[in-house]
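To: structure desk
From: M.T.
Subject: fold request, one chain
Message: Could you run this one when you get a chance? Sequence is below, nothing fancy, just the single chain.
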Amino acid sequence: MSNLIQYISAHSEQFRKTRLPSLYSDFRLQRASNPDGYAANISAWENALRDAVSAQQVQGRGRGGGQDGRPSVLCLDVGEELLTELETSELGRPLALGAVVDEAVARGSMIPVRVFKSYKSSIYKQSTGQYVWRSLTWGLRQLGITTNAVDTGENVKAGSYIFMKNLEEASKKVLDHFDGGIINSSRVNRIMSHQAFKQEVSTILALSNGGMSETDVQLLLVYMSRDMSKLAFNAKAVKFLNTVEEDDAVLTSEDETIASLKTLMHDLEMQISSVTNRVSELKNKAQSAVSQGNKASAMAALRSKRLAESVLNRRTATLTQLEEVFHKIEQAADQVEFVRLMEASTKVLRGLSAEIGDVDKIDNIVDDLRDEMTKVDDVAAQIAEVDQLGPVVDEDELDTELANMQRESQGEQELLESRTVEQRLKDIVPVPARKGDQVGHGNEGPEDRTAQEYNREAHNSETEKLPTEA
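Reply: Done. Structure tokens follow.
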């Protein structure tokens, strides 16, 4: 079992042992009879191969892998070599791999490299007819109706295909890394050499096996330039775009010179580091020879050390000069951007001043504004005077009316008190007659007369207190 099959089996849940016979079978026949199973197998193969490519597990040697032999993280080389890597002793080769590629191309999740490079404008701005036809073709194929747009023959079509999801994810990681850094900095910092860009991307994507292949670098540059409009590049330099500059998308000879200078400085730094280590090694070697009493070896090591120190001094001096030149270039580039900004600001101010007009016009506007404000104040004053106007009120009449209201209120209160007293008198219970006495015939006893007199006197007393009604 190849390393590719081992990786897919370990990282893809769809490639369980029980599912392998179905995945390796000619499941193209299920397109009409079992469309769900057909779609599941297509998706399983596409996802597994895309993940394997992203992990650099597909050892391509064609266009995807590049001439340097490094595995691609964006492209899949489809052909006999891939079929051999996928072959197992129990199941043989996958019989429907061609259908997997055809379906992916029909959906647009995979694009042939040659087609991708041939586009002059963004792949997201292709004609609507192409997308409609692609969607219609894929839908008809799901119903078992073949078209001439996509050949689904038994043989796998050899070629290199880009996984668009891998390309989009890689581009996003690169932009996220540079966003807020060199992208928003000065022109000099946004320029780098082609080799520096390749090294940066390999570090960002955490790629092993020697980093990113040259083919992948070219595809990434094309995508970020043509389809995302985030950078401009040529064979010598790469420049991240800044929307402030109108001609920023064009690489100039100055940009190429800046990229070359930065590359030379980087190379000198690496050489200085190497020579410094060499000087330390020779010094240790001479000290070891002295401790061993080997004068000849010690002298030879010291001579080599002197020569290395001489080289180190020259290269350090050269690097210092280049850094001074680079600093001047950076300063001049900043000044150019500042002058452009001042020119743009001058145009804006000139246009705004033209809209405003001359001083006399402004004076007239201010005078008219004062007049209108004065009119508004006059109107407000007149409205305030109207609000203060109203009927004249006689204070004596108000006092008389208030006194009448008080007397009426007092009379009502006295009437209420009298009615309360009457109710209380009605509630008084009379003293019951003694047994054997006759009531109502004038034969009241002494105690009865006393009760009657008491009730009468109480009634007369309360009545005298009541006010005389008018």
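Reply (cont.): The first strand starts at residue 75 and ends at 78. Let me know if you need anything else for the meeting.
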